[in-house]
Design brief:
The complex is a heterodimer of chains A (222) and B (214). Chain A is built from 9 helices and no strands. By secondary structure, chain A is mainly α. Chain B is of the alpha/beta class and 214 residues long. Chain B has a 5-stranded parallel sheet, sandwiched between helices. A 4-stranded antiparallel sheet of chain B has the order 2-1-4-5. Chain B starts with a strand and ends with a helix. The chains are: A mainly alpha (222), B alpha/beta (214). The interface between A and B is medium-sized, with 25 and 29 residues.
Chain lengths: 222, 214
Amino acid sequence: MIRALGWVLRRDLLLAFRRRGDVVNALVFFVIVVSLFPLGVGPEASQLRNMAPGVLWVAALLACMLSLARLFAPDHQDGTLEQMLLAGEPLVVLVAGKVISHWLMSGLPLVLMAPLLGLQFDLPGDALAVLCVSLLIGTPVLSLIGAVGAALTLGVRGSGVLVALLVLPLYVPVLIFGAGAVGAVAAGTGAEAHLLLLGGFLALSVVLAPWACAAALRIAME
Amino acid sequence: MLEARRLECTRGERRLFSELNFRIGSGQLLRVAGANGSGKTSLLRIICGLVAPSAGELRWRGKPIRSEREEYSRNLVFIGHLNALKDDLTALENLQVTAALAGMSAEAARMLGALDTFGVAHCAELPAKVLSQGQRRRAALARLALSAAVPLWILDEPFSALDVKAVAELEHLLAAHITSGGMVILTTHQEVQVVAHAVVRVDLDLHTAALLAA
C-alpha cells in the first residue's frame, strides 16, 4: 500500500518535473498578484501591513485553485486514471499520493515564497513566521478540498468554473482563519486559536477528503 | 471463473444490450463481436467493474465483482482503447509505474524484457509522446508479457494499429495464456488465430436484434 503511494508520488513528481512550466505558472501568478498590490495601493506602510495577510492568502488560494484542473483531467484523458481504479490497491491510497504531490508542487512553493513577498508589505518578523505556519497548515487543506472538487467535475464541460463554485465556499473558512492568524499577531492577541482551528480543518480534511475524492472519481468514470 | 447473468447496459436513453448471459472458465477466450456502437467497449468496462450494469450482475469465482472490488481488480488486466501512457514519461517508466501499481516488481531488466517481447525495447528511453501509434500500442501491450500470472485479461481492440509481426506476437501470448489456464476477453474485428475450441463468442448484434424484435 505504501509502495503504491510511493509510486504514484514518484510518477506525479517526475511528470511535474518534466512539465516544469505548469508548476512555475502558479508560482509566478502568486508572485505577480502579490507584488502588484503594493504598487497599486501606494507605499503607506501601515495600510500595507493591514492588508498583507488578506492579499497573500487570497493570492495563495487562487494560485492553488489554478492548478486543480491538472490534478485528474490529464490522467482521465490518457486512460491512466482508469488503470488506477483497476490497480488492485485501495483508490484512497492512490488519491492520497496524488494530493500529496499536488501540494508539493503547488502549495509548498507558495509557503516558501510567502515570507519574501511579505517583506514587501513591511510585515514584522513574528507576523512573517505566523504567515508561513498558517500557509503550511492551510495549503494542504486547499489541496485536499480542491481534489474533491476536481474529482466531482471530472469530464464535465466548463469544469474550471464549476470547480471554483464548488470549492470556494469550502475555502472561505480556511481563508478567514489563515489570514486571521496573521492579523491577530499584528494586533497582539496571539495566533494560537486561529492556527489550532486551521489544524482542525486539516485533520478533518485529511480524514474525509481522500475518501470523498475516491468516491467522486468512481462516479466520474461511469 | 467469470459469469454474467442477464446483463443490461443503457447509455442515456438508448439500451445497448440486455439479457446478456455468458460464462467463461479457465483456458477459454471470449470474443465479443458486434458492429460499431453495439456496446462492446461498454461491455468490457462493465466486466472490469469500472461501470455498473443497469441490470444484471457479474460473478467472479461465485462472488459479485462489486463486493470485493480490489480483490477482483488484482485478478485482471485491462487494456482499453486508450493506451494509458503518460506522454512525458518514457516507455520504460510508464511500464514500471503500471507494474508497480499492479503489485508487481518494477525491476528495469524485467520491464525491458517485456518491451522486447513486442519489439519496442529500443524505444524504452524515449518519451511516449515521440512514439508512433503502433509503438505506443506495443508499449501498452508489453504489460501482458508481465501478467502471465494474472488470470483474466480484458482487451479492447488489442490488434488495432499493430503490424503483422506484433499481431503474431500477441496471438502467441494469448495462446500461451489460454493453454496455461488463463482467461481472455477481447473485442476485435479480425479473426483470432488461437486455439479455436476454446473460443466463446458473444455477438452483441444478436442481442440488439432481439431487442428490436421484442
